[in-house]
Amino acid sequence: MGAEGGGPATAPKAANDRLHHCPAPAKLNLFLHVTGRRADGYHLLQTVFQMLDHGDVLHFDLRDDERIVRTTEVPGVPEQHDLVVRALLLLRAEYARRHGGLPPGVDIAIEKILPMGGGLGGGSSDAATALMALNHLWRAGLTQGELMALSLPLGADIPFFIFGQTAFAEGVGEALQAVEAPDCWYVVLEPGVAVPTAEIFCAEDLTRDAIPVRIADFSRHMKTRGGLTGFGRNDLQAVASRLFAPVAQAIEWLGAYGEARMTGSGACVFCAFSSEAQADAVLTKVPAKWKAWKAKSLQRHPLWAVMQTHQDVE
Ligand SMILES: C[C@@](CO)(OP(=O)(O)O)[C@H](O)COP(=O)(O)OP(=O)(O)OC[C@H]1O[C@@H](n2ccc(N)nc2=O)[C@H](O)[C@@H]1O
Ligand SMILES: Nc1ncnc2c1ncn2[C@@H]1O[C@H](COP(=O)(O)OP(=O)(O)O)[C@@H](O)[C@H]1O
């Protein structure tokens, strides 16, 4: 099951050789504007990323050899394609460049909670959690900024999770600034389809000319209105709704209770509520055909302390 061949250990297992129950939180794109397109075809975005206290959970155990091994199945994702494994191979190469020799191998167990192709950033969050955990366990010594830069080629959302706080993002999502968004509860509907990101960005009818907003516009709106309602939109939503009817149906249903939006390139749909009781009331009414859940906004990544002070979480 290893991602690459085994070999003799070059470094002993450290006394501190495991990190269990490491959260990989979901993200929402509170709004997502497409402001242009780069020469290489990638789209320029403006978005606010918000983490939720709901997500996958990962466990890491250092091995006596050098192998990077995923010990659990992720349906449809072979081990060598898994963003977690690919991220750790990058980190290991950087470790070898800095320290000489390879770090100990690692067994990785992933409890997959988040739907794939859901716009919740599950694969990206898993990869970010793995990078933060192994930077610590391997004593690789990368700074937060270095880890963010290392991760970007694997996916535009990964640097945000390592940044670890609510962020206003530009570029392809890599130019990040911390921003305040008031705490609230979200109801999230999973329409039961996986939306391929590339298909949405390729669509002819995608609008790519949003007028840029300023971070101050978002902050002022959140302060004066106390929430997102009335600010921005998701420019990918119309295309995803046209191509995937369940997305349109979920937006229409949830829209009866507030301003319902799609996150990322879909398929999941969310609506903000100021209290848990309001979110619970909506959840009781969700038709059985959809999976639905509530989550609270997270101000900081749960591994923030590991990144800042190198304290273990267990
Ligand atoms: C849309 C967002 C919003 O947070 O999230 P998700 O819906 O995936 O969670 C991200 O920008 C997703 O970025 P990333 O994770 O790098 O996208 P990928 O799935 O690798 O991109 C698949 C394809 O979509 C197109 N693509 C992607 C991002 C972008 N800014 N412009 C693009 O044109 C490219 O053709 C790319 O090859
Ligand atoms: N550990 C992982 N978990 C989920 N998806 C992964 C993982 N590694 C690679 N992928 C790939 O990334 C794609 C996007 O998954 P994900 O990040 O969960 O959704 P989204 O980009 O819509 O938020 C999946 O369809 C899958 O092929």
Explain briefly what this protein structure is.
The chain is α+β, with helices and mostly antiparallel strands and 314 residues long. It contains 10 helices and 10 strands.
Report, as a whole number of angstroms, the end-to-end distance: 26 Å
Looking at the overall shape, the CATH architecture of the largest domain is 2-Layer Sandwich
Looking at the structure, what is the overall shape? globular
- Number-wise, the strands total 10
Order of helices and strands: EEEHEHHHEEEHHHHEEHEH
Q: Based on helices, strands and strand pairing, what is the structural class?
A: alpha+beta
- What is the percentage of strand-forming residues? 15-25%
- Total helical elements: 10
Task: Produce the secondary structure layout.
Layout: E1 18-37, E2 43-62, E3 68-70, H1 83-99, E4 106-111, H2 122-137, H3 144-151, H4 158-163, E5 167-170, E6 175-178, E7 185-190, H5 197-202, H6 215-225, H7 237-243, H8 245-254, E8 261-262, E9 269-273, H9 276-283, E10 291-298, H10 304-309
Parallel strand pairs: 3-4
Antiparallel strand pairs: 1-2, 2-4, 2-5, 2-10, 5-6, 7-9, 7-10, 8-9
Helix pairs in contact: 1-2, 7-8
